[in-house]
Amino acid sequence: MRIGYSALLSGLALLSGCGVMTPPTPSPSVPEATASGQPAPAAPAATPTVPASFDQQLELNGIGYHVTSPNVAASNTVDVTPAGLEIDNSPFTWGADGAVTGAEVADLDADGSPEVYVYVTSTDADARGSVVAFSANKRKSLSSIYLPPIANTPAAAQGYQGHDDFAVVEGSLVRRFPIYAGEGVGAAPTGKTRQLQYKLVPGEAGWLLKLDRTTEF
Questions:
Q1: Which pairs with CB-CB distance under 8 Å and at least 24 residues apart come from 177-181?
Q2: How many degrees, rounded to 5, is the angle at CA 23 between CA 20 and CA 29?
Q3: Phi, psi at residue 214, to the nearest 5°?
Q4: What's the number of domains the chain is made of?
Q5: DSSP 8-state class, residue 150
Q6: What's the pLDDT band for 37 if we cut at 50, 70, 90?
Q7: Of the N and C termini of the chain, which has fewer Cβ atoms inside 10 Å?
Q8: What one-character DSSP code corresponds to residue 125?
């Protein structure tokens, strides 16, 4: 019996030395703040998305326009470089109240000197539209085209809350936007759309987009 008992003790010692009885490694401890019920630290705020840059080449009647914009989040600009003008093809840089979303070339007054219309949309929730435009004066040099603020025409501005689009349609610059009822945060869409049609006419110090027709549908 002594021999058997000694052998049994030696066997247990051997098993222990081989690690059979070693318990698993515990998981890493939970951070004290989380374990105590306190909220975990907030993740760093995401960096605001910067709109993609804009770059487009346009041409009509032998006059070209290269329209570019960095579309930066603040103090954005539009660069318009003409080509084919007889006197001055210098680039123009203009401030943009938002991001450039499109551009078109047209000859609204049918004088053979095409204009360029650059469409800008504000980057806030209202997405208000504006236009940066230039005319090729008798194919010689550029001058700016002025679009009066919509607020200058109260009847046309009634129910305006932004979200407008621009396009050249049949010799006019067309602006469309949904009509809202109410003001501010309480304004609600009516389901109707207002369309404003502008004609290009000479102004006192350049060119003017004059409201010619208003329709609703």
A1: 177/129, 179/216
A2: 155
A3: -125, 130
A4: 1
A5: G
A6: low
A7: N
A8: T
